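chain below, 131 aa
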Amino acid sequence: MVAVTETARADIRFLLLTYNAPGGKEIWAAMSESERAAEEAEYRDLIRSMREERIFLAAEEVEHYDAARTVSVRDGILSVSDGPAVNADAFLTGYFLIEVESFDIAIAWAARVPNARTGSVEVRPVMDIDW
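prediction:
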């Protein structure tokens, strides 16, 4: 009997951070019911594809940036301010956490995120830290 060994994959975890451009809420509001349903179906299909490829780890949509609070502690003093930590033209709307073999593959998946058409998708490697 011959032992079958599975080829080890040296996968890297990547965050695909989705951002909306200014006016993203308005773009969504201006879409017809069928256009919104089609985009939501694209997201479901994308996640289904990621699961089939066994690269999907997690995905979430986050609340609008007005719901954010930024926390800092300086010299032992807690400071909490309304809004995101960085004021920018684009704002974070969600993320996908995937595990793939290379940056190029992660970029190819990011290009499939519907949000990339009207906003952007940042691809960032996740550090492999053994806590």
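The helical segments are 24-30, 33-52, 103-111. The beta strands are 12-20, 56-61, 69-74, 77-82, 91-100, 120-125.
thats it, cya
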